Amino acid sequence: MIKSKIVEDKLDTLVSSNAVPIIDLENCVYKQSVTARVGQQLDKALSEKGIALLVNHGIPDEKIKAAWDQFDHFLDLPAEVQDRYKRKDGTNYGYVSPGMERFDGKTPELRHTYNICKLDDKNLLAETLPKFAKTITELALDFHNLSQFILWAMHSGLGTPTNDFVRKHSGLLSGDDVNMTTLRMIYYPAIVDDEPGQSEGAIRCGAHVDYGTFTLLTQDSEGGLEVQLPGSEKWERVGHLPGAILINGGEILSIWTKQRYHALPHRVIVPESVQIRSRGRHSIAYFCHPDNSTMISPGDLLPNQTESAEDSSDEKIYNAYELIQKKFSDTYGQRSQGGNES
């Protein structure tokens, strides 16, 4: 364990080189001075880097670790029980086993995931794992509250004249028929090098951008998360700041701000270090989306935005659901079978 930590500490990452903005949320206190400052810092981070780390966000480590433990309990269930909760075509909730999703259509992706889009018994395994339901519900509500604070801060940072931006996210965790917001539990199994074919040609999560407004990510260790910063095609390791939550912008937010905010390409590789890849990795991603019926007009979030006739003449405007389904189709060549990854 000590040797593993030394190897991890020597990794050259964006965190170790202080290349990721760190934003103090002051426990999400709704004061004008706090939301204004956070909004300004988010505006700078997402327009320049596409990524930031959030500290003092108000979600205790104990709750996050308890959620990871409960997901481990689910993964310990017999396969025939897990199969009852597998995600079905055309929906965005349920269990996804390793190999079911491949961003490039061919590369094996080594992870277990469980999507939650609505806080009801069906989504939360209340009958099979009552403690899972209780633990995940509490954490999902914490992420919901955190995302509401971030939306208000973004509203301030963007200088939008009304609170329509916040209201257009009123259906968070109401179900994917209303809003595609998803809490995703993720577990990347340990890679055992002496097991034939386990890591050869595989990846933990293929390169992609997220599709929604923004993504919040918490992870238990450095596990191979890489990004391409704006203007660069180089893949750079993010690294790990214990207790922090990472935020990155999604495709819808990028369109909404006419690419002022970046949808950051990212992937999760199998780490080079034997010590790191021989440990499993937990993460939780909260994909915040606008309500499905929300019209996403390029530049609509920018105050005093004037659009030339040339810019708008052939511009087709989609609602959020249509835009997300179009992105799924572009990526997978078929109707949605799930959400984003991290």
TrEMBL record:
User: Is Flavoprotein included in the keywords of this UniProt record?
Assistant: no
Gene Ontology terms, MF aspect: metal ion binding; oxidoreductase activity
Q: Which InterPro entries match?
A: DIOX_N, IPNS-like_FE2OG_OXY, IPNS-like_sf, Iron_ascorbate_oxido_reductase, Oxoglu/Fe-dep_dioxygenase_dom
Give the keywords, sorted.
Iron, Metal-binding, Oxidoreductase
Q: Which Gene3D superfamilies does the entry link to?
A: B-lactam Antibiotic, Isopenicillin N Synthase, Chain
Q: Where is the Fe2OG dioxygenase domain?
A: 179-290
Q: Which family does it belong to?
A: Belongs to the iron/ascorbate-dependent oxidoreductase family.
Q: What is this protein called?
A: GL13684
